[in-house]
Amino acid sequence: MPSIAVHYNFSTFRVKTTPNSNLQDALRQSLAHFHLEDTPNKKWILVHNKKKIALDLPGRFLNLPNGANLDLIPEELSKNKEELGKLLKIRFQIVGRGAVIANVRSNGKMVDILAQLNLGVSLKGCTLKFFSKSLQYEQLDDSTTLESLGIDDQSSIKIILAEQQKQEETKESTSGEEEKEDVDVEYQEDENGQTKTSPAEQDTTIDTISADVQMHMITTYKPTEVSLATQLEEEEEVEFEMTIDQARRYQNILSKQTGNLNGPLLTKRLREKSEKEHSLKRTPPKVCTLRIRFPDRTHIEATFNADDTMVSVYNLVSNALLQDDIEFTLNQSYPYTALNRDESKLVNDLKFGKKNLLVFSTDKQLDQYLKDEFLSKAKDLSEADDVKLDRETAMNNARKQGTHKEEQPSTPGSSKNKTSFKKVPKWLKLSKK
Questions:
Q1: pTM, full prediction
Q2: Cβ 225 vs Cβ 378: under 8 Å
Q3: Which residue among 7, 187, 296, 355 has its CA within the 20 to 30 Å range from the CA of 151?
Q4: Which of 165-169, 234-238, 251-255, 395-399 reaches the highest mean pLDDT?
């Protein structure tokens, strides 16, 4: 994206850009060229194909072609903040396609909100589910807002596409009175005040979970029979398009690894101070999902309250063991630390997050650790949402590496490790004298 064309009132202004620069400078230059300026009641934005461009992301994340045509238009702002409503964090879950978390206004039009999210799917004929209500996309009008729908706090909206809705109807007709287990749960993230989630954590939750999270309910996972490498070979090649949400998370990962390259270098004391301030701004989770891995690669997963202690965790694991009299220790996966069986609270004392992995260790080597009643209901580990996310990420990386190798030209001398001289120089010849 070396240059872009900004259009305003039948006039065009070309701006040179670089892949690592954002479009904030392009907007500033365009406003100066067209003799425009931002005011408290009128802001200007760049739009591509009727979609707002994120100005805080580098150009390489925007997937814009060379010489892309952008429109400079004013953004509709209300003079009174009360007319816009309060800012809400809403999670939009597309069944089978992931989720997007955004900060939106309670009085904003639902049609405009869904259009600005850039979900990348057609919403015609889809169904919006929130709380115990359902609403068709065609029923949305200019008067439909979050406030009119009764959403006045952090919440989750599930979007069921038309094709998925038809599949669910066929399943319901064949299975009879089968209970729907695909109920979404509110998922909140707070990272540096950004409107998106941080990544390494995926913004999807367990699909088979009730609306009211059932505490201390054990879900068992068995190791997958097909390795990830085999799945990558069998998977058909599809084009991967990075969404704005994924680009923000990827940018945050890079900034944490490399630091602020445009700013001064931070000492260890300043970095620790910044991390401490950032941790204080985070909202502590109300529930913790713990997954315990056993030596035979089986897993159990359960949800605990933030005020629960390690005694409750140890008791739950003991009840699931085939031999409940064996001595064992639960360890934190990284950094590998033994967790004692005491009254330490999961969030306040141990600083657990929303999802945590613990490792089961014992001196006895057994062929089976869990009771048969749990193993009989075990699911494949590949069905877990976080494993699906890792699998998708690995597949995308493998495709990128494959295309990179294909693009590299082969040179004639690249296969030779040593350079052979056709003619020996005179100074290297030994004298006969």
A1: 0.41
A2: no
A3: 355
A4: 251-255
